[in-house]
Amino acid sequence: MPWTRASGSAQGWRPENVPNPFRFPRAKHVRTRKPQAFKNYKQFKPDLRAEFSGQCVYCRMLDRLKGEEGFGVDHYRPKSLFPRLEAEYANLYYCCNRCNSWKREFWPNRRQQAKGIFIPNPCDDVMFEHMRYRLGTVSDVSDAGAWTVDSLDLNHAPLVELRTGVIRAVALAEAKIDEAEETVEDVERLVKRAKSKQERADLEAILVDAQRNLERQRENLRMLIGPPEPAAT
Ligand SMILES: [Zn+2]
After folding, report:
1. Number of structural domains the chain divides into
2. CA 70 to ligand 1 centroid distance, Å
3. How far apart are CA 137 and CA 154, in angstroms?
4. Residues 117, 110: contact at Cβ < 8 Å?
5. What is the pTM of this model?
6. In terms of DSSP bridges, do strands 92-96 and 131-134 run parallel, antiparallel, or are they unpaired?
7. What's the gap in Å between 71 CA and the centre of ligand 1?
């Protein structure tokens, strides 16, 4: 799920208040893409990328931060054990190469299943009920979450550092957008109250600059974490 911008400046811009682009979804994902039945599972990658908003379903890394070539197709049920699902869209997920290589051929055995040990996926499970982000670190909230954090090495120190840096940069970009929005509103008010044609013209020129600055700040945020989530219809 893409990020949503915090509305209004009242929430402040401390890192814990800004949208964390890595956060786990709070609802199950319902697949929307219906790709043709490719024989080679790799051909599903563009659909999976769109389906899962360019984020690894397990660690939530954004491919715009690491490059699409660092991402691939994960077989949730490994193809060695479930060969018939090798090119079955419902078994395929968008996944960073790092998570994919840690996950490998994992499938819980009966003993593990009895203990609630498995790796959750966003279509069958509510990821948020298993793992949550606290700034750049993943904390587990279930046995399956603990297993996943550990077996996919989700809190590898350089990764935590990278995510924390991104969250801070998002916070800063958000603060600048808030500031720029306020400036635009202030100047708009002044334009309405202008007492002469000249004053109005001068203020309108300032307004154009302020609007340009706002657009620049929004673009900075887009470059960092992608376009905002479209408003719900
Ligand atoms: Zn990953």
Report:
1. 2
2. 10
3. 8
4. no
5. 0.85
6. unpaired
7. 8
